[in-house]
Amino acid sequence: MIYLDCNATTPVEQAVSELCIDFLSKEYGNAGSRTHEFGARAKSAVIQARAHVAELLGVDADGVLFTSGATESNNLAILGLAAGLQKSGQRGHLITSAQEHKAVLEPFQHLQSEGFEVTYLKPGQDGIVPAEDLRVALRPDTILVSLMHVNNETGVIQPLAEYAKVLAEHRAYLHVDAAQSYGKLVDELRHPRVDLISASGHKIYGPKGIGILAVRERDYVPPPLEPLMYGGGQEKGLRPGTLPVHLIVGVGEASRLALRDHAKRAKACQAFRQRAMEALVTAGGVVNGDERHCLPSTLNIAFPGADSEALILALKDLVAVSNGSACTSSSYTFSHVLTAMGLPRERVKGALRLSWCHMTPEVDWDGVQARLKVLLNK
Prior knowledge:
Elements: E1 2-3, H1 14-25, H2 37-57, E2 64-67, H3 70-87, E3 93-97, H4 102-113, E4 117-121, H5 131-137, E5 142-146, H6 160-166, E6 173-177, E7 196-200, E8 211-215, H7 245-282, E9 286-287, E10 298-302, H8 308-315, E11 319-320, H9 336-340, H10 345-349, E12 351-355, H11 365-375
Parallel strand pairs: 1-11, 3-4, 3-5, 5-6, 6-7
Antiparallel strand pairs: 2-8, 7-8, 9-10, 10-12
Helix pairs in contact: 1-7, 2-7, 3-4, 5-6, 7-11
């Protein structure tokens, strides 16, 4: 069985794994310990990892905060910024989209329950939230815009540079959930108008349990974030707790490798995508989302009239695939992403998400195609 669920989590690069193990078994010092060499070496390793992340994103190393994952980073960016702005007397309008990950949607729903006004932009059937819709929704009192860079279910790339252009003369902060694009689409995330960036280590061939919130200063002033937890003062007082050095060096090394190898990885993924498309479209599949603006490592494909759970079961000894986000799989409902795109119910019901990487072995596509044709009576 070949693993095709890399949007949920990726395999770990060997060099990353070895480094993590080294900092678990040998260099196990606390980066906050100031009185001995174990602590000094741990602190030095954290500084180096922070520099690798900063170089990949084009931000100052002081603006790189380590969290437990993109979910926490999203919460800190959204709830922390809302609290910080409210503390300074600003309680304005918020904008996000209906196809965001639950780690963005639920913090916005919480703010809505607290009295904030939220506008939810809708994607078109191509999976793209148009920049013009953002322009129309923007108000003088808008204080935060949070839009994902790449959708986790469809792989569709959103027009981040166009969003930044719309916001060029506006004071609203721009937060980008880059869980699926970090280390893959490098130049876009370096745009100076992007104020806050969330990412996870386990989406770029690093360890689980480590995330990034990158904060870009505007006129030498960082966004006014308030912490969600207290105690210890680590990470500029925004994320207290003992730093997990082994995870931090892991995401740092994964970031370094991503900067070095992202173009080569994308080329391998694109070739894989072409073979997958040929097999699955021939078997009756219909691609969801704009193929021209999609990560080369993701394919969302529907078999109208079929049931995605039945498809997954039929293919389980050949490929491991999903029908949506791993974060909502415990209580399966129809994809809120595909539903927000306005796709017909029978197409949403029969949708599969395939996601792979440069380390994915070749799939027996003839076998997959034959299995699907039997199931679909073709």
